[in-house]
Amino acid sequence: MDVKLLEKVREITKGIVIYDIVITVLSVVVSLFSKQLFLGLIFGSLIAILSFRLSAIKIDRTFGGGSSKKPQLLILSGFGTRMAIYAIVLVASARAPHLNVFGTALGLTSTQFVILTKNLFIDKIKERRSKA
């Protein structure tokens, strides 16, 4: 995998860990913490990290010259696969008594939340500091 892409994947993975810590602390503060919520959050986050890493590998292969297929087809098939995995994970979480489906959903959305937070706030703060 490309070094720059690998660094971005590691950065997002660290952000997901921080996200999990923040959600756990917030759930304790508002008295919503439960073992099932925590396990669901961890389960969803692990699946989100795995899915993000697989997406990065697919992007690297698609645009790095490792594939002769149309890039649009590969990206679309990857998206469909991820959505199917997310559906299976949510159904499994809903059926498992030791997992909270809401916690799992929070974990599954962690990647999007971390990327949005990074792009909207953290990069803007770094940009302002570098100009000052």
UniProtKB/TrEMBL annotation:
Key words, A-Z: Cell membrane, Membrane, Transmembrane, Transmembrane helix
Main location: membrane
Topological category with respect to the lipid bilayer: Multi-pass membrane protein
Chain ranges passing through the membrane: 12-30, 36-52, 73-93, 99-121
Protein location: Cell membrane
UniProt key word Transmembrane: yes
Name of the protein: Ca2+/H+ antiporter (TMEM165/GDT1 family)
Organism listed in the record: Metaclostridioides mangenotii
